[in-house]
Write a structure and sequence with these properties.
The protein is α+β, with helices and mostly antiparallel strands. The protein is about 55% helix and about 15% strand.
Length: about 350
């Protein structure tokens, strides 16, 4: 069956041919910009990514008929001149998370709908690269924090073993040597020293991971944690509001326990001598919710803090632990206004 060709689909004159040629050239230019952008971003080192993104912004501006183009990591629509085009940089699958904006200024030529589609793809490519770099930087920060926390814990355990357990064991050994003389008093003292040594070992083990957390669960472990904090001079209270006796799974129990442990340690060191810590564990629907609040000196969330000042695993590592379980950790604080941690983890 013959196929009819309408007049509108066939170029009738030189002007139509030129229009088709220009359209093909425009499509080729868009494709070339996107291909070059993908190659440049894929091969760019993290430290060179900003420079590469700037060059791609200039190419995008020329493609879409603008005089200038730039990538602004902290762009506000009120800060750009009228007639500018501001496109958010988002990685595919990142939801509403933005990593800056592509800003095109001073339009000089025609802006076609195909240009906008190409710019959207370009923004996704740049956004994905910036997202990957931010993720790598975050992982590097967390890895460094984890290694520091491991060394801190090893140092603490080494000191406790040397100053406590090792000394007690040496004293017990000398006492057992005296028992050989047959003095019943030495035997009784040796027994007392052995009991003390066992207690010292249990204390060190509990500092690493309390057996009560595995044996009885999160609630008894939190009671023990708060009691130990009070013995060290920190005023603390614990409030448990649960709708059932069901325990969260082991991963959730460990995460919430570590949050409270870290918060108590930080409060004891940084909150001030008269600070009071309030810990509340509750169930809200199908979510485990932990609130840890102190009325201490607080701190500025926006101010950079040295890793050694944060103590222990640090706030960043606590947040990562919670997020790996599908939850979130929010921190509210200000100088002189104390600090509040809110951890929420959905039950699996």
């Amino acid at each position: 069956m013959p196929v009819s060709v309408t007049a509108s689909s066939t170029p009738e004159n030189a002007a139509d041919l030129r229009a088709l040629y220009r359209a093909a050239e425009a499509r080729l230019a868009r494709l070339r910009v996107l291909v070059d952008a993908g190659q440049a971003l894929a091969t760019a080192a993290p430290e060179a990514l900003d420079e590469v993104a700037t060059g791609l912004a200039r190419d995008a501006a020329h493609l879409a008929g603008f005089a200038r183009g730039r990538v602004d990591r902290h762009c506000s629509a009120a800060e750009v001149p009228p007639g500018s085009l501001v496109l958010p940089l988002r990685a595919p699958g990142s939801g509403e998370t933005e990593f800056g904006a592509l800003v095109l200024e001073d339009r000089r030529g025609e802006f076609a709908s195909e240009d906008r589609e190409a710019l959207d793809v370009l923004c996704q490519l740049i956004g994905a690269s910036l997202s990957a770099r931010a993720r790598e930087q975050r992982l590097a920060l967390l890895l460094g924090e984890l290694l520091r926390s491991q060394e801190t814990e090893r140092t603490r355990i080494a000191h406790e073993l040397h100053d406590g357990v090792a000394q007690s064991a040496a004293a017990l050994m000398r006492r057992l040597e005296l028992v050989a003389d047959g003095d019943p008093a030495d035997l009784n003292k040796a027994r007392d020293q052995a009991h003390a040594l066992v207690g010292e070992l249990r204390r060190v083990i509990a500092g690493m991971r309390p057996p009560v957390l595995d044996d009885l669960g999160l609630v008894p472990a939190l009671h023990q944690l708060v009691a130990e904090a009070e013995q060290l001079g920190l005023a603390a209270t614990l409030d448990i509001v649960l709708s059932s006796d069901a325990r969260p799974n082991a991963a959730i129990e460990t995460a919430l326990f570590r949050v409270v442990q870290e918060a108590l340690n930080n409060a004891r060191v940084h909150a001030g001598p008269n600070a009071h810590m309030a810990v509340r564990l509750q169930q809200v629907g199908g979510t485990w919710q932990l609130i840890v609040r102190d009325n201490g000196c607080g701190f500025d969330l926006a101010a950079p803090r040295a890793p050694e000042v944060q103590g222990g695993l640090g706030l960043a590592f606590m947040r990562e632990r919670i997020e790996l379980l599908g939850g979130r950790l929010s921190i509210t604080s200000a100088p002189g206004a104390g600090c509040t941690l809110l951890a929420e983890i959905p039950a699996p």
